[in-house]
Task: structure prediction
Amino acid sequence: MVFKNMYRARMDSLRADSATADRMVQEANYAFFLNTRIFQELDSLAGFEAEPVPPPAPAPAAAAAAEKAAAAGCPFASLAAAGLEMPEGHPAPKADTPREIDDAEPEVTVGSSHWRRQILCAVAIVGLCVTLRAYR
Result:
């Protein structure tokens, strides 16, 4: 709750132009899309869907929006530029190497068997915990 209140206060105090605000909304929507995909793939791997989840469509015009935006790089970088204190552990902005969604290298290949094993193990552990708790 503390982080949520701090985040809202900083977002409210941010003086962002229209282009920056649009990029922030676009990035938040894409993050929501990725989070939704995680749960779709978990359902598919657990057998709740008849067919595997198709690969996601590319990010909607993220590259074009990045080129047009005045703040190249993280849209939240204007917080740091305004002199607001960044949360502990937040990486420092790098002006010479902006990192966009489309340019980022994936840390895990979604189709890899290692990724699927990890998800299946996590689902099995959660299922076991729920089952054990139900029989208490």
The radius of gyration is 19 Å. The chain has a mean pLDDT of 69.
